[in-house]
Description:
Elements (H helix, E strand, L loop, with lengths): L1 H15 L5 H8 L3 E4 L15 E3 H9 L8 E6 L12 H10 L1 E7 L9 E8 L2 E8 L9 H19 L23 H22 L6 H27 L3
Helix pairs in contact: 1-2, 2-3, 5-6, 5-7, 6-7
Amino acid sequence: xxxxxxxxxxxxxxxxxxxxxxxxxxxxxxxxxxxxxxxxxxxxxxxxxxxxxxxxxxxxxxxxxxxxxxxxxxxxxxxxxxxxxxxxxxxxxxxxxxxxxxxxxxxxxxxxxxxxxxxxxxxxxxxxxxxxxxxxxxxxxxxxxxxxxxxxxxxxxxxxxxxxxxxxxxxxxxxxxxxxxxxxxxxxxxxxxxxxxxxxxxxxxxxxxxxxxxxxxxxxxxxxxxxxxxxxxxxxxxxxxxx
Length: 243
């Protein structure tokens, strides 16, 4: 779901900026996506609050929203104890925590797409239903200039604490990171590539059970959780600030 949210945030940024059309965004997102907007946040005409609609209808609404080009979107990678900039209401926080990831408008202008408008994924069999929720404007995500050095520093600290990054797990993942949208700089993709790999490695390490003392296990788990949080921040930063 994390990768799907990253893809949608990039498509929404490109769509809002007019770099792609709603049909093109739908094609790139993939088949079997629906949107449920029970509270009418998107203000789609003749919207049945009990029914889902094809994702193209919601994407078209975003594309034609006044001042859409001023909106910026980012993935939200939340976990218990980590709201990733969410500022409520409680219903939104709970929905994103349950999903593990979502997409939010983190910056806009008066009269434009509301900052805090959130797409929360809900798997329905092989399909994904995106629930639209109105949230409060979130805290600004970190910029690449902030998150990149912070990730490198955290990698150095965790490497020192664990005696080298090879201690993270016995199986080093070789993930392929998603491609960012058209509006991003090369260094955004470079940061995403690194952060994606570190995120996968930290999660693999947290899922492993090496033979350590209870004290050693606690040190290792704490270090990997800090590394995962830093990598999550870097993933968000890479995706949140297109040109």
